[in-house]
Amino acid sequence: MKIDSDPLQVAEASYVEPFECLMIEAMEATTMQAVTEEEYAEKIKVVYPQAEE
């Protein structure tokens, strides 16, 4: 009977390269406006009207 000294070492390990890379552009620094949770919830309801269903 053969016993593996390192059971996590797999001889059939595969190497995968990413086929897609997402590039983003850096935006200029802008002032941000604080929004209350209630205002945020109202804006989300406008964008996603069926989100609560």
Layout of strands and helices, then pairs:
Elements (H helix, E strand, L loop, with lengths): L36 H11 L6
Q: How would you describe what is shown here?
A:
This protein is mainly α. The chain is built from one helix and no strands. The protein is elongated, with a radius of gyration of 25 Å. The termini are far apart. The mean pLDDT is 76.
Which characteristics define this entry?
single chain, 53 residues, mainly alpha, elongated
Counting copies of identical and different chains, the oligomeric state is single chain
What's the pLDDT, averaged over the residues?
Answer: 76
Contiguous helical run count: 1
Please tell me what the overall shape is: elongated
Radius of gyration: 25 Å
Could you give the order of the helices and strands? H
Largest β sheet strand count, sense and barrel closure: none
Number of strands: 0
Which residues form runs of ≥5 with pLDDT under 50? none
Helix content: 10-25%
First-to-last CA distance = 59 Å
Strand composition percent: under 5%
Short description, anyone?
The chain has one helix at 37-47. With 53 residues, the chain is mainly alpha-helical.
